Amino acid sequence: MRNSNTNNWRSTALVAGAILTAGVVTTTSTTDVHADNSQNNAQVSNDQVTYDQVRATADQQLAQLQSANDSKEAQQATANEQSNAADLAQTNAQIDQLKASHAALEQEQAGAIAQAQASTAASIEAQTSAANAEYQQQINTQQQNEATQRAANDQQYAQAVNQAAENQQAVADINAQYQKALSDAANTQTSQAQAAANNYNSAVAKENDTYQGKLSAQQATNAENIKNAEASLASATANANKPYEVATTNDVAVTGRVAKPQTDVKVPAYVTKYGIHLEVRGYNGAIPVSDYTYPEFANTYYGEYPDSAVITNKDAESTPHDISELPLDFQPGLLSYDAKNDHSEKVSADGLTADQVQVLRALALSWENGFRNNVFQNYREFYNVVNKNDGFVNVAPVDLVSTDFTDNIANQVVANRTKYNIDNNSHTVISSGMPAEATYTSVINDATKNLKKNLTSEFNGKTVYTDVNENLTTMQAGTPTLLNYAINLYNSMQGMYYGELVNPTHIGGHAVNLLCAGVRTVGIGFQKLTDEMTAKNGSGVSDRKNPSYAVTFDHVGFNIDYDANLTKEVQNRNVWGTSTVDAQLNTIKTAQYHVNKVPGTKTVTPTATDVQKATASEQQKLADVKAQAQQSLDALASAHQASLNKLAQQYNDAKAQVKANYDVAVTKAASVRDAALKATGVVNLQAYKAQLDSAYQNLVKADQVAAQKLAADRDAKIANIKKVENVKLDAKINELVPSVDPQIKQLQDQHQAVIAHGDAVLAELKAENKAAYNKLAEQFNVQLAAIQRRENAKRANEVRLANNTVVLPSAVKVANDGNIDTVAFPTASNPLQAETTGRVQTVSAPSIVKTATQTPIAVAPVVTTVNHAAENTVKSNESSAPVVTQTTAVAATTNNGTQTSVASTADNKATKADNSEKSVVKAGTVAKKQTPAKKSESSQKVDQSSMSIVALAATALLGTLGITYSSKKRHN
Description:
- This protein is α+β, with helices and mostly antiparallel strands.
- Helices cover 57% and strands 10% of the residues.
- The chain contains 23 helices and 17 strands.
- The protein has helices at 2-26, 28-31, 33-42, 46-108, 110-166, 168-240, 269-274, 295-299, 354-378, 380-386, 404-419, 440-458, 482-497, 509-515, 531-534, 564-571, 582-592, 608-614, 616-680, 685-736, 741-794, 831-834, 944-960; strands spanning 244-255, 464-475, 501-503, 506-507, 519-528, 549-560, 593-604, 798-801, 804-807, 864-867, 872-875, 885-886, 889-893, 899-903, 912-914, 926-927, 934-935.
- The protein has a 5-stranded antiparallel beta sheet with strand order 5-6-2-15-16, sandwiched between helices.
- The longest helix has 73 residues, at 168-240.
- The protein is flat, with a radius of gyration of 53 Å.
- The relative contact order is 0.14.
């Protein structure tokens, strides 16, 4: 598009020239100008001739040099290919020879190898058989021991059975006597327990009758006393409840609707597959959600998409309808936009008004403070990591302010960015194509120089650190309303800040810049983007119907000797200007919550509290009567319960004695039985059998454990036999047929060295050829520039149009010719330029207009990547194409100076962050959300304003000759 605009200007200039020529010819018959024109046709500038000659010589010599260079490089490349092919053939032949020799040796030793293998197999088989035989002998011994033990147990048990049969009748008599003793003891226990229960029940019935009589009498007395007290309270209550008139003022609280950020967002599969691409140190690609300490932070990344268009489960509670419904805090989560329910003011096609900018500044300031405070209160680990070296660990930050002081900084930054055509993917820094005095650090240093000077003097002997940094994002809107812009900015800031809090060891540059406790103010600028900027690849602007903005956050502050107390004292001083956003914030706060006072008079019905106060005395009397009544009842119940407890204790004691008597009788019967049985020598056959079986099973279990170990030892022994014999076999085979792999590897390495040497020779030749070509081109440029300056000085007041030379009525001021464009030497064709072939045209900014076949194309630029923190420049690949597209890798450093390479992705939303150097010893941080591909336009164009002056001069001369030219229609 830019080239098209330039051609249009050229066309306009040529049309004006044609009309001017026609005017001169028309007046020939009366002014004899025709003769002057003829004479001019024969005159050709000596400088022009010299220029064309030098140019032609340059084209020829450079073409010849380039042809010779190409020939030499082609010859060298061919030589390399031939050398590589010859060496490869020789290497392969040597390898084939080694392999053939190895195969022949294998064939020759086949018999010896087979004999060695057979001998090894026989040895393994013999040793394995011996090991198995030894193992089987050990198992047989175990089985014999178990059989001997089993036979002995059977014999002992049979002897016990015979003895028990002989004593069977004596045992039966003893057991019968024991059972009779138990029956007598049980009968005695039953009769004694029944007598104790009868005595207890009779005593309890008598106590209950006595208690009931006393209770009935006391209840009657209590009821009469309570009735009298209640009647007195009812009379007092009736009097207290009578309505009365009062003058009142009512407070009516009004709570406005406030949207709640949505954290449980869902997105389409293609968005999930694309992943999270944010500038966080340690990630060159997508950031896994599993790496986030707080998973809700990962979802804020989708705020990078305009209007959160990728969210599929938009929540109505997260959709504000006006500016007043936007949250002023900054909890994690995204907002949605509904154009049908947008009640905010419109934004014109010309962009935001000054008042609308202040509203957005107020909101952005509130959100930045909300982020800082929320991270400190609820996610302290991130805050402490950022400020671990600044004296602010576990020390709350002071809120940022936006004042007339910071507004001036922001406005100057926007003006400088606009002046130097800085797009939304570039920070306000030198590497973006602007002079040092226009960078954001220069603007801030100029604004704070007096304050810093005073602080340095005040804190003499301490170090005053300057904390400045810049964050950058893009704001756009599909619907031209203030609410749409605000929601877009809110969501973008969510991704820029919460999205970069992956975990305490991986924090993005934007979040680091904002969490720095040393900063106190922020200048928030809104730079309106041009159509050219939004049309660039990777601009991140999806809807170009409405104005889009690059939003800059330039943070400023001072840290006094890493002392939090001194730093906060300076931050709280009245040196940062007057707030310019209080009114906007208060308007939103009032809409979200305020109290209306409504005066008037009304009839008041006494409240329960009023009645309570008026009847407090009577209520206390009633309470006292009820308390006394309850106390009397409690005393009766307490005495009654004490009597019952005493009777229960007596009954329990009696039952315990009955049980003790029974236990003594049972114990005595068992003792008599056991003594009689012992005298007969009886054995418990079941227990004796179990004892013998247990001893046998213990022997079997021990043998099983031992058998497992024996099997393991046998298997290990056999495995070792095979290993030792196979090692011997391998050694024997290697001795018969050695390996050729080391010789093959050596030959392959030698061939790769030949290839590398040829590549190095060709690269060196190309570098020498390019240097020679550039040197010759520069020499011709110097000659052509000198000719151009001479021609400009001589032809300052002349304009060549077609075949005529026109002298302007007044001298055209010749601009300073100190800056002459470099001429390049490719050729092209253009029909419009053909009309001025071989002529010199003078315009307001002196430059020689080249012939039509010479389309100026500058030497291809060298694209560099600049690391601002380290102050070093690394050159990337050079290209001969006039337009160079390159995705740059930007170095991001944290406060401790550690650098990381962040791969820029053109598909991401274009947002960046940068941090200038902190003075004294603190290294600055540089953080860029992404750097899209940039184009270098090297084609030289005729200055549009210069051609306009030529057209205007021609029109003025037509007027002096009586010829009128107008683009408007004539009305007859």
